[in-house]
């Protein structure tokens, strides 16, 4: 199996730093080598900074892929699936490069981000930077524990990494990101019962509602989906809370061996079925949405030119 970029399946950290870049005109000639260099540098940094569990990955935007690697494309790579229903919108805002940096030290993340920006100088322009943080015991800013039903152990790689079904891209991962802005004032006005019904779990002790008590509009009802043969549509969520006193929310990140699971879950949240949509969307709004592929280290080395 080709070596994957370490940050894709990494366990959670205290701090995240996310950089989004758009490539400059003509940069496609030099970028494959620089991207391979960044991925290798992030990997070497993980070894050097094991004490703070540093990890990272770099991913290429679905709309930009062909400009860099015209000879081959991951079988299912597609633009971000924008959905809209009534006043609910999950927008698509394509970005060319996504760099995911995480560790338990803010300063180590800052050093890494500085190095990434230095390497991309003249080749790509930074269009957005988001700094994520662990909130309490892995909670979203709504106060609910986030990530409970994520795959664990070897299951993380099984869910997140492309396997033998697409051999040229094995060890890679389909990445979707969305920056959500929470309406905290409105959320905090809701009763505990309304909040718990909205998620489908209890707030303090994080217990899942029994299935007969789970409302059709509950977030986990809308996102816990199955294939027709009964297999779960799993994704690996690497999201983190972010923000300041002016704007705050969740930087949502999905890593998966196929983009289909995220797409089906997002559709079920926004469009829903039989009039049932995800009531979490009454209190939070996605303001960005982008699709990427994070190739294996071997693919990046081979394509460096
Ligand atoms: C579960 C929060 C967006 C997919 C959960 C849980 C929380 C949560 C608190 C329950 C605990 C857990 O299992 O992690 C949020 C917030 C979001 C958000 C605050 C945005 C503001 C999304 C999106 C997707 C998604 C956009 C996919 C399109 C899932 C899945 C589960 C889950 C698959 C596990 C369901 C289960 O099997 O029980 N989320 N989420 N979430 N969420 Fe989200």
Shape estimate: globular
Structural class: alpha+beta
Q: Helical region count? A: 9
Compute the average pLDDT. Answer: 98
SSE string, helices as H and strands as E: EHEHEEEHEHEHHHEEEHEEH
What's the oligomerization state? single chain
Descriptive key words:
two-stranded antiparallel sheet, binds protoporphyrin IX containing FE, 9 helices, 26% helix, 305 residues, alpha+beta
Report on the structure:
The protein is of the alpha+beta class. It has one domain. The protein has nine helices and twelve strands. The strands form two sheets. Strands 1, 2, 5, 6, 7, 8, 9, 10, 11 and 12 form a ten-stranded antiparallel sheet that branches. Strands 3-4 form a two-stranded antiparallel ribbon.
Secondary structure blueprint with pairings:
Layout lengths: L14 E9 L7 H18 L6 E7 L3 H4 L14 E3 L2 E3 L6 E7 L2 H15 L3 E10 L21 H6 L12 E10 L1 H6 L2 H8 L19 H5 L12 E2 L2 E4 L4 E9 L3 H11 L13 E3 L3 E5 L2 H6 L3
Antiparallel strand pairs: 1-5, 1-6, 2-5, 2-12, 3-4, 7-10, 7-11, 7-12, 8-10, 9-10
The structure holds protoporphyrin IX containing FE.
């Amino acid at each position: 199996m080709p070596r994957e970029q370490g940050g894709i399946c990494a366990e959670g950290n205290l701090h995240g730093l996310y950089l989004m870049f758009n490539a400059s005109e003509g940069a496609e000639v030099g970028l494959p080598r620089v991207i391979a260099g960044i991925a290798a540098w992030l990997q070497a940094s993980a070894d050097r900074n094991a004490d703070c569990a540093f990890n990272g990955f770099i991913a290429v935007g679905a709309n930009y892929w062909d400009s860099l690697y015209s000879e081959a494309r991951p079988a299912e790579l597609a633009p971000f699936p924008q959905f809209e229903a009534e006043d609910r919108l999950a927008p698509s805002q394509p970005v060319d490069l996504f760099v995911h940096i995480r560790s338990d030290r803010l300063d180590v993340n800052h050093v890494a981000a500085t190095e990434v920006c230095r390497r991309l100088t003249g080749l790509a322009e930074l269009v957005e930077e988001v700094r994520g943080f662990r909130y309490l015991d892995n909670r979203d800013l709504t106060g609910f524990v986030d990530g409970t039903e994520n795959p664990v152990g070897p299951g993380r790689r099984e869910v997140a990494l492309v396997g033998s079904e697409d051999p040229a891209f094995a060890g890679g991962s389909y990445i979707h990101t969305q920056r959500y802005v929470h309406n905290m004032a409105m959320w905090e006005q809701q009763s505990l019962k309304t909040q718990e019904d909205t998620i489908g779990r209890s707030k303090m002790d994080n217990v899942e509602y029994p299935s007969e008590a789970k409302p059709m509009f509950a977030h986990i009802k809308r996102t816990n989906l199955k294939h027709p043969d009964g297999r779960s549509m799993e994704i690996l969520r690497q999201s983190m809370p972010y923000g300041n006193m002016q704007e705050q929310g969740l930087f949502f990140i999905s890593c998966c061996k196929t983009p289909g699971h995220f797409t089906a879950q997002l559709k079920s949240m926004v469009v829903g079925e039989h009039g049932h949509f995800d009531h979490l969307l009454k209190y939070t709004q996605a303001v960005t949405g982008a699709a990427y592929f994070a190739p294996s280290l071997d693919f990046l080395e081979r394509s460096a030119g």
